[in-house]
Specification:
The complex is a heterodimer of chains A (about 180) and B (about 180). Chain A is α/β, with parallel strands linked by helices and about 180 residues long. Chain A has a single domain, classed as Double Stranded RNA Binding Domain (2-Layer Sandwich). Chain A is built from 3 helices and 6 strands, in the order αββαββββα. Chain A has a 6-stranded mixed beta sheet, covered by helices on one side. In chain A, α2 packs parallel to α3. The longest helix of chain A is centred in the middle third of the chain and has 17 residues. With about 180 residues, chain B is an alpha/beta fold. Chain B has a single domain, classed as 2-Layer Sandwich (Double Stranded RNA Binding Domain), CATH 3.30.160.670. Chain B has 3 helices and 6 strands; from the N terminus they run αββαββββα. In chain B, α2 links the parallel β2 and β3. In chain B, α2 packs parallel to α3. Chain B is globular. Chains A and B meet through α1, β1, β4, β5 and β6 of A and α2, β5 and α3 of B.
Chain lengths: ~180, ~180
């Protein structure tokens, strides 16, 4: 499904400046209405798999700022005492993935004369946002956003926009799975 | 009975679309499964799933574990505290990107235009191991492998897929 989407976009590049996939898993038994406050959990010990994003304060600040803003719209505020209803963790990961384009003869969308498959490697970034019930220490919701990180690393503005979009779309699903 | 089976098969095919699950298993030669009645979970898997969406994801791992327990119970295996179990159960789940060249072989001219396309898909594998708790030898391994494009992004679909996969793996444990 997502591969098909990426394929479609690769053949119509200008139309797809951003191809971000967002989804989530949820604990269906959790009562999300009871939560009011949150705290940031201990920092992620896992590296992102990419030195350009590891220990990047810009990334961290924008991400945490975007999450704070979206959660505020949902009535959740950062706890000012040492305790909270929820703990929030996040993790960013970058992996090499392949994309194959340019071989769909039936639809006449060959990219070159020979209609050969064009295999390109791209860097897929995944942002995972975990929300844990602080009392039970159980994960009640996980949201994620995946997209190519190439454009994102080109400029701070693009990174900022991509982070905002990822967080907005992930948290629009807060409390939901599919 | 026959009609019910056919209906079940139809539903299974319809719910999976074109994505099929391949199930395989092997048992240690001479393993006497009549000896085994109880099991316990082995230590958690140290390997990652290969997908950040699934690593440390209780909705994914919890579903597999609950399904394994349910299916093993249905086969007469009783879950007990470690120390007194006949079998130790381990599992490993993995998701990776796979390139399928789609039979592209233009040189020999047997390429059907519809099929002759390489593509990339997400391939998932779940492996379940049964280890004799006394001898610590692997006595049985079953695994299922299938295409999972879009499955992880849809929690209900993922759960159905896990249910189906685990049921089919456990079904291949030799009858006692």
């Amino acid at each position: 499904m997502r591969v098909a989407f990426i394929l479609a976009c690769a053949s119509a590049l200008p139309a797809c400046a951003s191809t971000m996939t967002v989804s989530s898993h949820v604990d269906r038994a959790a009562n999300f209405a009871q939560y009011r406050t949150y705290l940031w959990g201990p920092a992620d010990a896992l590296p992102t798999g990419d030195p350009r994003l590891d220990k990047d304060p810009f990334f961290k600040d924008h991400f945490e700022g975007a999450v704070t803003k979206e959660l505020a719209r949902k009535g959740l505020s950062l706890s000012e005492s040492g305790t909270a209803d929820l703990l929030i963790h996040y993790h960013a990961n970058v992996t090499e993935r392949l994309n194959i384009a340019g071989v769909d003869r039936r639809y006449g969308s060959c990219l070159d004369e020979d209609c050969r498959a064009q295999i390109t490697e791209y860097e897929a970034g995944t942002l995972v946002l975990d929300v844990v019930d602080a009392r039970t220490n159980r994960l009640i919701w996980r949201g994620w956003a995946q997209s190519s990180v190439k454009e994102m690393l080109e400029s701070r503005d693009t990174m900022d926009r991509q982070i905002s979009e990822a967080v907005r779309r992930m948290l629009a699903r807060f409390g939901k799975g599919l | 009975m026959r009609i019910r089976f056919a209906a079940a098969a139809l539903i299974a095919v319809a719910s999976m679309g074109c994505a099929t699950l391949n199930v395989r298993s092997y048992a240690e030669r001479g393993a006497a499964f009549t000896r085994y009645h109880t099991y316990t979970w082995g230590p958690a898997d140290e390997l990652t799933t290969g997908d950040p969406r699934l690593d440390a994801n209780p909705f994914f791992h919890g579903r597999i574990q609950a399904d394994v327990e349910q299916r093993l119970a249905a086969r007469g295996f009783e879950k007990v505290q470690s120390g007194s179990a006949d079998l130790t159960v381990h599992y490993h789940a993995n998701l990776r990107q796979r390139v399928d060249v789609g039979g592209v072989d233009r040189g020999f001219g047997y390429c059907d235009a519809d099929e002759c396309r390489p593509y990339v898909s997400e391939a998932g594998t779940v492996t379940i191991d049964l280890v004799d708790a006394r001898t610590r030898r692997l006595v049985w391994r079953g695994w299922v492998e299938g295409t999972l494009d879009g499955v992880v992004d849809n929690q209900s679909w993922m759960e159905r897929k896990i249910d189906d996969a685990v049921a089919r793996i456990v079904d291949t444990i030799p009858r006692q």
